[in-house]
Design brief:
Length: about 325
């Protein structure tokens, strides 16, 4: 597999979905029965707005696909599948997506649960989280994604930007999270992608996902990349797109303890097991949940995450 991937790497025009700066601007003050109050975030493919139902006055998050991407049927179709995933998988660690529709201009949008917090990628820029907090976050991600696996879905894009850390902590004092964004989620029996459009984020993709054949073990690998980054402050691999393909296929990363000497040997070994090139050598997501939870309690030091700041809305 490696040699074919290496041969193809320099010839792939559009091998993966690429992050772009969304130019989405919602000019209408209302969408259906929702009044748009303000923009909350602008991401690679969509923008999120604070909206209020004009009758019930319930506030929600309204996610609008970039109009440029809305012209691509496959992208638009995957975008509006998020409520289907949300209805099929009920779990407190997954964001609720209740409705999909389109504006008068034909741009798809989603109505989602409004979350009070910030994404994990933004949060860790403020400092290195304590190991027990990292493990508590990892345990919750594993529990949420494992729930998806049990009903036949693969997330396919587990990464810090798709984990939302809420301002209200759990009773243990550890941060509470929600996994978001099911835009590239697939069913376990969905046909492989062999058309050059591989869905996912290159820095977190295992070899089989580069091949267009993700499995539930692919999410385990991506979570391993996320944990590695939280522990060390570095992604397992970095480089250009062709370089990332080869590195994720052929190379083993340094042990996390190389960057953070306080990393326990058991965690060191388990993260590397999650990053095994062969999916059969990786644990299941259910095993990840159990193992990380046990390690979290052993390491518990009650050291909080870096300070989180609310922005006025």
């Amino acid at each position: 597999m490696a040699s074919r991937l290496q041969r193809d790497a320099t010839n792939m025009a559009h091998p993966v979905t690429q992050p772009i700066v969304s130019k989405t601007t919602l000019r209408e003050s209302n969408v259906a029965k929702f009044e748009i109050l303000q923009m909350l975030a602008r991401g690679g493919t969509a923008s999120v707005y604070l909206a209020e139902h004009t009758i019930t006055h319930k506030r929600v998050a309204l996610k609008l696909l970039d109009p440029v991407l809305a012209r691509h049927p496959e992208i638009a179709e995957r975008f509006v599948q998020e409520p289907r995933v949300s209805r099929a998988v009920k779990h407190p660690g997954l964001v609720e997506v209740s409705h999909a529709d389109q504006t008068d201009a034909g741009v798809p949008y989603l109505i989602m649960e409004l979350l009070d917090g910030e994404n994990l990628a933004a949060l860790v820029e403020n400092g290195m989280p304590a190991l027990d907090a990292i493990l508590a976050i990892g345990t919750q991600i594993a529990a949420a994604v494992s729930a998806m696996h049990r009903v036949g879905f693969i997330h396919c894009d587990v990464k810090p930007h798709n984990v939302f850390v809420l301002y209200d902590d759990m009773s243990t004092g550890w941060p509470r999270i929600k996994v978001i964004d099911y835009g590239v989620a697939r069913t376990v029996d969905e046909s492989p992608l062999h058309d050059g459009m591989i869905m996912g984020t290159p820095a977190y993709m295992p070899p089989e996902q580069w091949e267009g054949e993700p499995t539930t073990k692919s999410d385990v690998y991506s979570l391993g990349c996320l944990l590695y980054e939280l522990i060390t402050g570095e992604q397992p691999f970095s480089g250009t797109l062709p370089q990332l393909l080869i590195l994720h296929t052929d190379q083993l990363p340094e042990r996390p303890s190389t960057y953070r000497s306080s990393t326990p040997p058991a965690l060191d070994a388990f993260v590397l097991r999650m990053l095994a090139k062969d999916p059969a050598m990786r644990p299941t997501m259910a095993e990840v949940e159990t193992t990380l939870e046990q390690l979290a309690w052993k390491l518990s030091t009650a050291v909080p995450l870096p300070t989180m700041h609310r922005e006025a809305v």
